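agent> fetching stored inputs for the pyridoxal-5'-phosphate docking request
agent> found them:
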Amino acid sequence: MSEDFTYLDWAATTPLRPEVLASMIEAAPLFANPSSVHTSGREVRELVDAARATVASAIGADPKEIIFTSGASESCNLAIKGLVFEHLRHPKLDGKPHIVTSAFEHHAVLEPIEWLEKLGFIEATIVRPDDQGIVHPEAIAEALQPNTILVSVMWVNNEIGTIQPLAEIAAVIAQANQGREVPILFHTDATQGIPYLEGTVADLRADMLSLSGHKLGGPKGIGVLYRAKQARIQPLIHGGSHERGFRAGTENFLSIVGLAKAMEITLADRPAEFARLTELRRRFEETVLREIPGSDINGHPTLRSPHISNLFFADIEAEAILTALDLSGIAASSGSACTSEELGPSHVLMSICDDQHRADGSLRFSFGWTTTDEQLDKALEVLRIYVPKLRAIAGRV
Ligand SMILES: *Cc1c(COP(=O)(O)O)cnc(C)c1O
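agent> prediction call returned; pasting tokens
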């Protein structure tokens, strides 16, 4: 990567924080198995325990409620499938377990639900967000059934950045749970929320919460599922009794150390970064809207995490702008990194606007701790030049 490379794709992944790398290098000579009872094993065990305590306190949980996984994809799978397996042929459940989720969840939530439904294990109701990208608590309330066991709604959408009213959704669930023999649990994919927004599991009122290391400056391949003590789930990986029996396999020690360090720094910087990115994005979006005709913001005007700006340019293929940006050393994205290799419009944008022209002409800029106004000025310059140019080529001016 060259010096003047401008990375505006932080929602896809983040660089490793230098302090994280340092913490991992420092721990790297330790190799003993944390399950071993000898001194070197116990030394590693202590570091894993300390990391677990750090992560737990960062989200207001008890260390016993933290399950280390390979990332948010696994965490979401464990929350969903683990709860479904706990409820299969449940004597007190009338019919198959039923799950409610939203149409613009990450594939890590949508795919396991779709798979379980196809296998005939569950029923599912997919709730549509409104055209500003907000999932309404009333829509969730309407979707609940007597056999509902889980509601899964993400905190911050990874393509448009909209913030979901989780506490209000949890209140709807709490209301429905009164007098229920089998309670409905609430899971949130908080992968894009934790790095930028303030909130504990108590604030969010979540029974289960998924997060990922590489979205907050930690290593890839490490994540967390928070599981409240009362939430009973089955493991997906059977074997040893690691992670209190919820996930077998020798702990990913170095990545766990790195994740805890990344969490620590994220928490310390989060309020100031929120303010800084809010201002940075405000200036960026105001400039785009003022200087580029036929441009618009996707998602709610204010209920959005400041690290994401999803912009629509009428009569343009987003892929063409992305190529122009890339040639200028700027990395942005159309939709999520996980779906950009798929053909077809973003399921997130289609769920809020149902307009393929808008989905095809939209791109995501996402920001993090090294993003500066100067970098965004560079992106603005490319947009100023190429948006009219590309429209002219397409014969649309
Ligand atoms: C990145 C992301 C995931 C997947 O996380 P991995 O750790 O890469 O598995 C899940 N949900 C959201 C919202 C994400 O942004």
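agent> quick read of the result: The chain has two domains: 6-14+270-393, 18-264.
agent> awaiting further instructions
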